[in-house]
Amino acid sequence: MTMIVGYASDERGTAALHLAAMLARSAGDDLIVATVVPAPWIPGMARVDAEYRAYLAQEAQLALERAKSFIPADISATYLRHSARSAPAGLLELADQHDARLIVLGSSSTGAFGHITFGSVTDRLLHSSHVSLALATRGFRCSADRTVSRVTAAYGGSDSAEDLVLASAQLSADVGAGLRIATFAVWHRPAYTTQLGTDSEDLVMQEWQAELEKTVRATLDQVRGLRRTPRTVETVIGAGVSWPEAIDEVGWEPGDVLVVGSSELGPVARVFLGSRATKIVRHSPVPVLVIPRRRAEELAEQVTGS
Fold first, then answer.
1. CA atoms of 292 and 275, how far apart (whole Å)
2. What pTM, to 2 d.p., does this model score?
């Protein structure tokens, strides 16, 4: 299959290429490295606009030449300059033309190093893409032979969470990686000067964890019953007084990727992150795959045969 890489000749583009190479090597996919340039305006445009577009096309071609130096020799890659009304529209057009299963993007250069920050292109695609997105952390780098070693599915306990886990299980099996089902809880303890009076809050947290573990076990039973299973399967709960603390609690390693799903309230066929998923993505220390709800349902149906 094919992955599209949205490339810009800056640190965003370099991080996206490193992530794309790791994902493509793991899945055995081909890459299409693409730069999008503005489509021409109506006939009769001023010559200065034509000259500007020629300049942009030349810069895009030079950027693609630079991109070749970042793609390892074992990865099959094609380099394209595509004309479209906007970068998000152009990447979606290419994804449709080549039946791509993933669009790979870098983080904004204004965000925190080692985390994900949405730029204008990423933000637009998170609200409009019917194709899954892979987001690199700012400054992401990996060795030339790196593959995905573990897929972590962010489990929220919603009706669509089971589909996301099953979709993640298929992804893990496809790339020969382990699967981890992770739940994150931000728990603000009352600011008491002593522990007196916190027993009820602790009890609520314990009951929540027990109920969650019950639903996760049921989903695990489905994963273990699949025809093709991940290399390993585990569950983990990350709890803390803030999102960074809760997410860091579970531990992360090179070769990890995190998978999140679309909001229940968003468009079924498109990516749309709810507030909780957005916080998880922004504080993730590893690359993130964002899967539209309908795509997660399709993948779940494929692995269960339903």
1. 15
2. 0.87
